[in-house]
Amino acid sequence: MAVQAEAVTGHQHEGAKEPSLNQAQIPLVVGALIVAAVLTVFLALTQQPAQPILLILGLLLGYTLFHARFGFTSAFRRFASVGNGQALRAHMVMLAVAVTLFAPILAIGTTFFGGAATGNVNPIGISLVVGAFLFGLGMQLGGGCASGTLYAVGGGRTVMFVTLFFFIIGATLGAYHLPFWSEEMPSFGSVSLATSTGLGYFGAWAVSVLFFGFIIWWTLRREKRTQPPRMAPVPTASGWKRVLRGSWPLITAAVVLAVLNALTLLTRGSGWGVTSGFTLWGSQVLQTMGMDVASWGYWQGSSAETLQSSVFAHGTSVLNFGVILGAFIASAAGGLFRFTSVNVKNVSTAVIGGLLMGYGARLAFGCNIGAYFTGIASFSLHGYLWGILALAGTFVALFIRPLFGLSVPKSKDSFC
């Protein structure tokens, strides 16, 4: 089965045909491992101690995302279209593990290297409402979220290169417009369930876990009544080979991703994010072309040094490189790496979806990773609202997708 990132997030049923390792892809695996080793050494010799560790964490994140086909776009779409909450429940498990790990780290407040560990707690306002909605709409057209775009590129899904390119453009444009949205539009400031409400980290953890449990119970109860189709099996190996080839259970991936996010927090002082890297890449390209990017409000203050530094000094960029490379290794090791075909329809949706996601992520102070995953793990109310608003964008996208020839799951369909 060809890998379609974000189209397959599946719950892996036993008995699916075992994938085979194509001998032609062995050199790809070896080459990727050599690149990873060289880049790790380069970072160790030229950058701060955290950077090579972040690269390794990125590799593991990309490897996990690909092997589990762990998606956010398809999870939202399946739930919105037919009420299948399998992947959404995996999100809740991931978030429950994440808040359990983040709470003591944030309470202590220090990293492996002695720096401050702070959560992704961001403002609530019109900027969030517009940005998260646009992101939800865009990810359903672009065929992947922020993490999904990266691991789909690593897996060779050709159209996602287009999505990534316009994602970067959208994020850069969003940075240029951000002062208008964040300063001139109404905003109510940042709200942490732990530090802004008097609950403390234990109280915030308890409330969060209860909420995740409620979502799991509610989706199971809803499915019992509506009987939505289940996800189709994904090819997998058996035994220890499953680590290298074949798909992983969603719950396993959820736990691994939460642990890796906590290690990211302990390494660099902030959790996993994606789109600030896109903004930096686009801004630096414009700067080399002579544009006065440094004058933008987004790059003022503490961000000014980041704009002038190498991308290898930027933690999020290093994580992004690692995710792409990790997904490439996973796809090649599974004998699944291949470039896919493109056409006018999927290129047009990739352009629109990428622009909407990039612009929306910048307005909403993050994407499905930085705002939703890491934001909720950091006890930010902003993260919960991001998820609701992105789901609203998904509902609207269900009416738009057919205009571009994109399918919408029906109650009689099976998932693949």
From TrEMBL:
<protein>
    <submittedName>
        <fullName>Uncharacterized protein</fullName>
    </submittedName>
</protein>
<dbReference type="InterPro" id="IPR007272">
    <property type="entry name" value="Sulf_transp_TsuA/YedE"/>
</dbReference>
<feature type="transmembrane region" description="Helical">
    <location>
        <begin position="349"/>
        <end position="372"/>
    </location>
</feature>
<feature type="transmembrane region" description="Helical">
    <location>
        <begin position="198"/>
        <end position="220"/>
    </location>
</feature>
<keyword id="KW-0812">Transmembrane</keyword>
<feature type="transmembrane region" description="Helical">
    <location>
        <begin position="158"/>
        <end position="178"/>
    </location>
</feature>
<keyword id="KW-1003">Cell membrane</keyword>
<feature type="transmembrane region" description="Helical">
    <location>
        <begin position="124"/>
        <end position="146"/>
    </location>
</feature>
<feature type="transmembrane region" description="Helical">
    <location>
        <begin position="384"/>
        <end position="404"/>
    </location>
</feature>
<keyword id="KW-0997">Cell inner membrane</keyword>
<dbReference type="Pfam" id="PF04143">
    <property type="entry name" value="Sulf_transp"/>
</dbReference>
<keyword id="KW-0813">Transport</keyword>
<feature type="transmembrane region" description="Helical">
    <location>
        <begin position="248"/>
        <end position="266"/>
    </location>
</feature>
<feature type="transmembrane region" description="Helical">
    <location>
        <begin position="93"/>
        <end position="118"/>
    </location>
</feature>
<keyword id="KW-0472">Membrane</keyword>
<feature type="transmembrane region" description="Helical">
    <location>
        <begin position="26"/>
        <end position="46"/>
    </location>
</feature>
<comment type="similarity">
    <text>Belongs to the TsuA/YedE (TC 9.B.102) family.</text>
</comment>
<feature type="transmembrane region" description="Helical">
    <location>
        <begin position="318"/>
        <end position="337"/>
    </location>
</feature>
<dbReference type="GO" id="GO:0005886">
    <property type="term" value="C:plasma membrane"/>
</dbReference>
<keyword id="KW-1133">Transmembrane helix</keyword>
<feature type="transmembrane region" description="Helical">
    <location>
        <begin position="52"/>
        <end position="72"/>
    </location>
</feature>
